[in-house]
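Q: Structure tokens for this one, please.
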Amino acid sequence: MTTQRAETNRVTSLGENDLGTVIEDTGVTLVEFYTEWCGTCQRLKPVLGALAEDTDATVVTVDIESHLETAIEFGAQSTPTFVLFADGQPVKQLRGGQDEQTLRALVDRYSD
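A: Here is the predicted structure, written as tokens:
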């Protein structure tokens, strides 16, 4: 499976085999489970980019159509679904479109 890793402070798109590694290697990780055809997901791309640039969190996107087992494992039954991991553990899940302020507050709550 190919891994697409972006530069530091960028949104990263990872396959299911890589997600565990990223979560374990970072303090706070925000994962968005999405689909290409999800309009809300498309509108959130700039928000995720801003979070990746402005916070210490790692921001990862996972296409649920390509990685269904991973989506099921983390309860992503609709798109977008956000799962925040802190110290390798899932601590919060949000479903549906979120605004930047909500996501930023969530990341800040669990960042050092």
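A few notes: The chain has four helices and five strands. The domain at 12-110 is CATH 3.40.30.10 (Glutaredoxin).
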